[in-house]
């Protein structure tokens, strides 16, 4: 793994010197700020049962993750394969695993950086409203920990899509489809009549275990369940292994 | 390489019975060749002949379907990473990251090639100097001209001082001035590194390379030095003569000089009674002097006389045509001219 840090630092550097990263960050923060303002308006009109942070994080799963994951992950492999620089990269003594992990690590750090920047919204709320009821510390910490943990898997899915598609647009659509399947597909499939068959109980249990909204609820309540951690860590490892295998298979049939 | 030479340079590239198929279609078909240290070898072939596939297999980027490739004695298939440490590669179209600066890119590539930081600094200065990139080392690659980009690609390939340099079409799309610079650059590597270049530009290969491999339909159809190839593939020497006199008596004169020398073509007399004639013989020896003497002795008047060297282009066209002709025969296989026996491992 001696090249991992070389690739990681190079990828981070390239993301940081690229104007499009800043442009994407500005757009992302603008959208998140807009959502946050909207939430605060709802809270100012009537009392709510949950804190603004809780709703903010639910919106993360329902909406923001679909913007930020493709944004940070659709470029790494698609772009390199399209331009042919992946060929020169893989003719140095670098393994596919190091390349995948390096690019994944950089995308994940940018993902964390973008999400970390949304903490500024809560700081502004705290600074100007100074109302402790609006800032539920447990929900806030739990929510950000959840974003960090779930981000491992979501970013891995994005990198996987990027490794499979030469075209960035195809990578984007593939990433969105896979994320939608994971976030909403598991929930929707449980509602299908067919799934209530006794024979499908193990499948139902597995789908129930993969309910990401349920995971967020638990994290937001300050419950850090090792089963959830296991789900995200193993899911990430599996997706990255599939990414490495997928990339090697693509190169084999180049 | 002469067999009498006491210590021939070691083999750096050994390719034995290399085959690569793409979904049932054979792209490289039983290719065999070797390259010694310090040699510059040209790989010639029409589009789709299997040049790029062969080079990609040499770099370890693409696995072979069967056969053995060794770089400096290291089998590429089983010890890919070790073999890659001996290779500098510049792929077709020379893909480079558009948004990096020249020195940043070379530094990054140097680190990936496992060059220590101290040595990398020295090497960077050396390759920037050698490739005349010092002035533009801080420029963004995406804003460089094609010639400069090619030089960046070559600088990257030679950065780690590898034993083997593989370049796929290094002069494609360059203007004549830039071609000269790249040619000199490649020539400067002669004797130190083994260089294998694929190209369509035949004069380029002729000037730069010590040896040429002609590949067609995935097979090596001819190989040797340009002079050897001329003899082997075309097998004829031509003389052009612009003369006046009795053309009917010319065959007899020629037969006296060399029995195999015949008139290949002769034009009609021009206004001053001179003919353009092409004489041909399978013999390779220089017949110019006795031929001129014989013509003068028979009172032929001569305005010009020359021996024409067939270009590599003629050789290439003849070799590829010959291979297609043989392929077109039912059940025929392409003759592999002078296929070498695999040399001993380095």
Structural write-up:
The complex is a heterodimer of chains A (254) and B (346). Chain A is an all-alpha fold and 254 residues long. Chain A has one domain. Chain A is built from twelve helices and no strands. In chain A, 38% of the residues are buried. The model of chain A has no long low-confidence stretch (mean pLDDT 84). Among the domains of chain B are: 56 residues, no CATH class; 74 residues, Alpha-Beta Plaits (2-Layer Sandwich). Chain B is 33% helix and 27% strand. Chain B is built from eleven helices and 14 strands. In chain B, the strands form three sheets. In chain B, strands 6-7-8-3-9-10 form a six-stranded mixed β-sheet, sandwiched between helices. In chain B, strands 2-1-4-5 form a four-stranded antiparallel β-sheet. In chain B, strand 7, helix 6 and strand 8 form a beta-alpha-beta unit. The C terminus of chain B is likely disordered. Chains A and B meet through helix 1 and helix 5 of A and helix 2, strand 6 and helix 3 of B.
